[in-house]
Amino acid sequence: MKFVVFALGLGLIAITLASRVRSTHWWIRAADFPRLQVAVLLALVGAAHVMTIDRTWAPDIIFGLALAGCLLYQSSRIFPYTPFAPREVLDAVAGDGTRTIRVMISNVLMENRKVDEFLAVVREADPDLLLAVETDDWWDEKLRVLDADYPYFIKQPLGNQYGMHMFSRLQFESAESRFLVEDDIPSIRVTVRLPSGDLIDFFGVHPRPPTPHVDTDDRDAELLIVGRQAGACKRPTIVAGDLNDVAWSNSTRLFQKTSGLLDPRRGRGLFSTFHVGFPMLRWPLDHVFHDPRFTLVRLRRLRSIGSDHFPVFAELQLEPAAADVQVAPKPDPGDIEDANEQIAKVS
């Protein structure tokens, strides 16, 4: 038993230490994802260690302290995304419905053929803006039924799992599909007009995830480029999509500081979206960030559509005065230097 406890504990300590390393190597960045699972296992291994500890043997004491330190660290990274933490985004007050925007994002899974389930969820959620990713030519054809209800759209079907479709009821003032870092990974930028007449900017993203032999340089650079552009926008701004990154990672935190955008999940819950098929191994990969001029009407993880991701729905209300209360993340000089270095790697 003691050998098993030590073996598991050392592995969890190694994962925790790896997650603190500032590196873009895929096998190190993968340690960002399972913080909740690692924290639970650290608590279980720690409890087992307490039952077998020899308080006269120094290695046992050191090992116990290491487990406790790692548990505290992992918990500190997860805590902001629990209902016990302070909320980063205020609840919207009852106001003018012409200044609200309903956003739905969904990784449909390119091989998924349950399009009827997806369309049913779209009708139930009734978004103003719909961003679907992993859309290929098959999905492009099946989603044409949305054209009647969503007269403004950008369609970029691709067979490499990075296709992207955006549908909008709100008028596009400008719209473009861009390839910021890789020539086969699109992103979308649009300016839409709310019924109130207010203009807002929306960025839709789906960068490549860390996988064996694929490090995170391109993913991180794309997020930071979008973050820099969002931070430079004069209009209220939303960035959403499957970021292939978790909310608590160093890269997402740097993105928030670069962009000055808020995360409505903070103080409300994890809203883990991937993987649908493995409830014990789920992480929040699908995100909606917005600037401090928005408040939150509601945020929901929607039901399964047959994909490996759950869709996410957010309804935001434009309240410019909220920017006087909600504190936008700000970069320090070291953050700016880190962002510049990561963008320069792919320039």
Q: How would a textbook summarize the main sheet?
A: 6 strands, mixed
What is the helix fraction of residues, given as a range? 25-40%
Q: How do the strands line up in the largest sheet?
A: 3-4-2-1-11-10
- Content-based structural category: alpha+beta
Computed over alpha carbons, the radius of gyration is 21 Å
Total number of strands: 11
Distance from N terminus to C terminus (CA atoms, Å) equals 52 Å
Description:
- The protein is an alpha+beta fold and 347 residues long.
- It has helices at residues 2-19, 26-29, 35-52, 58-78, 115-125, 137-142, 217-232, 250-259, 333-344, and strands at residues 100-107, 129-133, 152-156, 164-168, 171-178, 187-193, 199-205, 237-242, 286-290, 294-301, 312-318.
- The strands form two sheets. Strands 3-4-2-1-11-10 form a six-stranded mixed sheet, with no helix packed on it. Strands 5-6-7-8-9 form a five-stranded mixed sheet, with helices on one face.
